[in-house]
Amino acid sequence: EAQVTQNPRYLITVTGKKLTVTCSQNMNHEYMSWYRQDPGLGLRQIYYSMNVEVTDKGDVPEGYKVSRKEKRNFPLILESPSPNQTSLYFCASSLLGGANTGELFFGEGSRLTVL
Amino acid sequence: AQSVAQPEDQVNVAEGNPLTVKCTYSVSGNPYLFWYVQYPNRGLQFLLKYITGDNLVKGSYGFEAEFNKSQTSFHLKKPSALVSDSALYFCAVRDGWDGGYQKVTFGTGTKLQVIP
Fold it and tell me: β-strands B10-14, B110-115: how paired?
């Protein structure tokens, strides 16, 4: 089954304790991206990657890091989480090139609470 | 810069009645337009898209959307609402310029409540 898998789905942590949210896709998509969803703000892009070892900032990258060492994986790293990073996070992927119309495939989301 | 506006935070409609969820957009080139749906505690799911061609596009679960270039709108519609359609709906746009990956911009979402 084609899917984007995120883990953990739910996490409560404390300020300053490093955490990683994993994302994996099995569709051989070149493009992967992280979004955060906050009430009234919709989805805002954090980071994206157009291929292995190619990453770039989105609209709200502060406080986050990413890496793309393998095509299928795109982890989101919070080196020192703060309460303003409490949010619902989504990983998404899509094709690039001629087949790309921008349609995104989303994971189920990771709800993060930073105390 | 491209943008998407969903002017209604919430739309209420009676079951069996037609529904419309509004979306307007701004993009410099030709727009690629999308609707996604999000059910509680789930990720976003693709509903339909407009790339080119017929202004009326049909998608999943009986939804359709009408592209109106002069009004820069892409409203989501369904002839007869079901209670199970209750969810959060997002409109999205990207610039259709074929120069590699183009960013997809999302609206703030509209909560659809179908009343039995």
Answer: parallel
CA-nearest residue of chain A to B106?
A: A43
Q: What is the pLDDT of residues A27-71, one digit of tens each?
A: 999 889 999 999 889 899 999 998 899 999 988 999 999 999 999
Torsion of CA A4, A9, A13, A18, to 10 degrees: -20
CB neighbour class for A13 (10 Å; exposed up to 12, middle 13-18, buried from 19)? middle
Give B-chain residues touching A32 at CB under 8 angstroms. Answer: none
Q: Nearest chain B Cα to A109, which residue?
A: B43
Tens-digit pLDDT profile for residues A70-100: 999 999 999 999 999 999 999 999 887 655 6
Q: How many helices (H) and strands (E) does chain B have?
A: 0, 12
| Measured distance CA(B106)–CA(B91) in Å, rounded | 6
